[in-house]
Specification:
By secondary structure, this protein is an alpha/beta fold. Helix content is 38%, strand content 14%. It comes from Plectus sambesii.
Length: 1063
Amino acid sequence: MAGSQDALVLVTGASGYLATHCVQQLLNAGYKVRGTVRSVENEEKIAPLKALKGSERLQLVEADLTSEDGWDSAMKEVTFVLHTASPLPGLTATDDSTITAAVFGTLNVLKAATKAPTVKRVVLTSSSNALMDYDKLRAHPDHVFSEVDWPANLDNLSTYAVSKVKAERAALDFVDQLTADQHKFELVVIVPFLIFGPTLTDAVGASLGMLHGFLTKPMAKLPNISIPSIDVRDVAKAHILAMTAAGAAGERIAVVYQPSYRMTQLGHDLNEEFSSQGFSIPTEEMKQDDDTSALNPHLQILLKQRPYGADIKIDTTKMKKILGMDKLIDMKTSVIDSAYSFFERNIVEKREVVLVTGASGYLATHCVQQLLNAGYKVRGTVRNLKNETKIAPLKALKGSECLELVEADLTNEDGWDSAMKDVTFVLHTASPLPGLSSADESTITTAVSGVLNVLKAAAKARTVKRVVLTSSGLAILDFDKLRANPDYVYSETDWPENLDKLVTYGVSKVKAERAAWDFVKQLTADQHKFELVVINPFLIFGPTLTDVVGTSLGMVQRYLTKPMAKLPKICIPSVDVRDVAKAHILAMTAAGAAGERIAVLYQPSYWMTQLGRDLSEEFSSQGFDIPTEELKEDDDRSALDPQTQAMLKQRPYGADVKVDTTKMKKILGMDKLIDMKSSVIDSAYSMFERNIVEKREVVLVTGASGYLATHCVQQLLNAGYKVRGTVRSVENEEKIAPLKALKGSERLQLVEADLTSEDGWDSALKDVTFVLHTASPFPAPSAADESTIKTAVSGALNVLKAAAKAPTVKRVVLTSSGLAIMDFDKLRAHPDHVFSEADWPENLDNLATYAVSKVKAERAAWDFVKQLTADQHKFELVVINPLIILGPTLTDTVGSSVAMVQRFLTKPMAKLPKICVPSVDVRDVAKAHILAMTAAGAAGERIVVAYQPSYWMTQMARDLNAEFSSQGFVIPTEEMKQDDDTSGLDPHTQATLKQRPYGVDIKFDTTKMKKILGMDKLIDIKSSVIESAYSLIERNIVEKREGYRGPKNYNRLDHKLCRFLKR
């Protein structure tokens, strides 16, 4: 069959709401698409189509439902047709032209299809209006609608509903009446219910119009009517599945999310998301006898049709059984996504301008980003608009087109009145940088005068509803109180009584907050009164979006760059910057927040010693020496940095600081915060990413362009390492292009070195800390190829000899194989034998070249390390013994294991031998190598890496067949009997059959993998083989077939592997 890249799909009315999603999903699946539009010169209409990903495979042609012209040429060479085009709905049944156009247009498409011999199937978009009969529902409130239902009486239906009923009936009649001399094609009808979900165009149809009305012209009350609905992305998916699904031909298929959605729930869902963004969305339910005259015409029609309060139930068996769609996007997500798409496309204007002061600051940038994400317009103040270094991170934020930057300085009243123009909410986060003693009066003066400048401007701005002020936990904590009562629990009623012992920053925060409360209390009758909320965050950690390092991040930076010898046991109650930003935004609109101080922190409290341990656990393997030893109370403190010394003077040693967070939970609804370990680790990674802290450790990966090696390189880059990779030729662009395409490849250096030569290895090892020796000569199917064995052995020794001359190398991780462990003679004698790292194959004569090369190379490596002399640099050796490696490939080269999957897709066997193929996913093998670099207890060990229970060749076929048989691939699943003829099997499978006892399970002890590497949850092999197949198809190693849909359910192909090692 033709691959999907050769199958041409026609989508009628391609610029429509549903049609654009169909086009996008078809392009994503690799199809060529032709779309009909009324005019190819209407740039406004076709621009969204041209902007779709993959639009180079989209051809637009002119064809109109009201005319027969253009449809024959539009249908040329088309395999599948998605007829989604429909005239716009009217509100009454009097507009016969809409009905005529729908019927006539459908027949025009079908007539053209009968003249196109290539057309196999037409998928017609009908509507739930062609299925629901409300008279039947009134008579039988428990009736469950199905595809056998049609509305009996069309007189009460809207024009759109009548047009859908008549067009679908006309289509079914047309296909039934096709004569012998006409080309016959299959017809499938998709019957979607009310369609919601994000729009890719600027046109708003009936269902999205309902949402539009909620946001722009809301009703006072909501009628309690059932509106069974579905997301547009699922409707598009249903159309594409229906093109090729077995059993779909000749069927009507209802497509709807169950249980049914209700208009009252729609109001609640929109209100919950958007009431804080300036939208007044009703949630009160209308009673059945309330006046409905104020409702919009569309809703009045719905109310007339549907029995009030009745639930509409639909049988979705066909959708689930024929299309395999049993998990749909939930309607709350769908309607909220609809609304956000309106904002993004400027169909609905965003509300509320929020002013963020000191917008380029650590906390402020997070506030700005979250506000932009929530759809607000944001105005940010900065000291100097010409300071590109400061404002570049703000311009780089997602949604920054809705961000306006203006100049205003805390030390000056100028600029604040204009900054406050048309503003609804103010987040005053700006604060002068902290000092270490209370002598710096200018910091305190600036903090106080700055707050008052902002509040004075707010009092003159009639639009300002609420100001949220960033104070600090230091404006709550009184350490004298803690000394007197170690079990004391702080709350927002606390203030420090003695400011003399506080650092400048603490004093500035106390005085600025007190000044703010005094100012608001003293507002006079002729001044605009606004509400004040104060957020009191404790020590703030978390990723930075800027290149400036403040006090709290400075602590993490010092741990990485200038660590202390020992860590004082002092409590540092903390919170993540993302949670603090969230608290500010929630505080803008939260009921009950006005006039409140709200402490924001993670509980239980964090400790400086724990901070050290968390950073050490994550980064000690990356070349950072982070102390974990605790400083005793009477130890010398003179070597501590000034900030830590200042904290020690303030806080009672070893005392826990407890804070009541009831207000944070009750008023802001924040009861789940980011844990502090994640927060400080994210802080550190963000400093690496922004080059605030330089990364350490160079790791050498040999044979870097290989299947396993590329995954090792990617995971190392994700973990922050500098990577050097060896390749045979740095000029072989085809080989090295996948490496250059890896995320973080700016930290990857490629050098030339070949296993067959000693040249290049000494320079490749320069300044290297860890070596992953993954390179191996390509396996041959027989044991006759001695050169493969010699290359494997000499290559391993070349690497190890160079490591013995490189004083920086700490550990070498060697990739061996499960073949260097398995002894099939032993398995024949003892079928229940469980292999472990203590096993080696005793007789190499029956093994393939690759297996022999792995055994001999590994033995040579162990011998070499044992024989290192006193004058040679001694390093540690760890050997990873993976079983058959499967999983997605990042390169275009296919090795022996993934080739097995390739053969199933391209040259399948008629029957499958029942042989055990113990396997593991390539990402887990890469992870094992990287963990083995630093894992305590790994040195000197062989470590088997395998998924258990073992996999079988027959299971592999069944898994591939289940996923790909509907996508044009014919994969056998019948099991071969032991005495069947095996001559038709491929050479690789024949070799495997000769080695292994038929039908015997191969079991492994994976204790070391679990205990030493901590790997107890591996990727399951079903996922692994399916992702192997998708990666082969997506990289065009295996040709797409007609009906290919793409990896929709296997998102691991996107493998966002950041911090993969700690997942």
